[in-house]
Specification:
By secondary structure, the protein is of the alpha/beta class. The chain has a single domain, classed as NAD(P)-binding Rossmann-like Domain (Rossmann fold, 3-Layer(aba) Sandwich). The protein is built from seven helices and twelve strands. The strands form four sheets. The chain has a five-stranded mixed β-sheet with strand order 1-5-10-9-11. A hairpin with a 3-residue loop joins β9 and β10. α4 packs across α7. The radius of gyration is 19 Å and the shape is elongated.
Length: 182
């Protein structure tokens, strides 16, 4: 969070949150799959693709909670479930044909929210990770006492996440989204 270096001695502090896909947001594949469902054919880029998933409501709650707890310089990452894009497609349109169109430029197979280098400055809490500032000039160092350090080589990625959504769970989320927008 380099922005804190520019805050100097002022009382302004900056922190940020990092999370995966927000279900049903403008950047989500869900609206496209719902539209493609009408044609009986869904396009996916790769059958191995995985993503983290968070609802808009959970994302907003997480941001508010982090604002209330931040000291400055931290990056907050919620523990969120992962899902396979193929499972999402099957949850939205179980009978549809899946057409693999190939990964687009810049697209990743899996999301990584904490990489190995960052893990050294990260602590784990019950429901989130906190990447602490790497320099003592910044704030946000009391997290060490509130969380536990991550093991060497730790990475938090959508393909190695221990919490996975089932097709039934994905269907329930999609159904509630559709009910909200109807």
């Amino acid at each position: 969070m380099q922005s804190n270096a520019y805050a100097a001695a002022k009382s302004t502090r900056f922190s940020c949150v990092r999370y995966g896909n927000v279900v049903g947001s403008r950047g989500s594949v869900v609206p496209m799959f719902l539209k493609q469902r009408e044609n009986g054919r869904l396009t996916i880029t790769d059958t191995r693709m995985t993503r983290f998933w968070i609802s808009l409501e959970d994302g907003v709650r997480f941001v508010i909670r982090c604002i209330e707890q931040m000291e400055g310089g931290e990056v907050f990452i919620p523990k969120s479930p992962s899902m396979r894009i193929v499972d999402l497609a099957r949850a939205i349109a179980p009978e549809a044909k899946l057409e693999v169109i190939g990964i687009r430029a810049g697209e990743k197979l899996h999301e990584m929210l904490i990489h190995e280098d960052e893990a050294r400055a990260t602590v784990e809490l019950e429901d989130m990770y906190v990447v602490q500032p790497t320099t003592e000039l910044w704030f946000g160092h009391s997290w060490q006492a509130r969380g536990k350090p991550l093991p060497e080589g730790f990475r938090y990625a959508s393909d190695t996440n221990p919490h996975w959504l089932t097709i039934d769970e994905i269907q329930a989320i999609i159904n509630s989204l559709e009910a909200e927008t109807a």
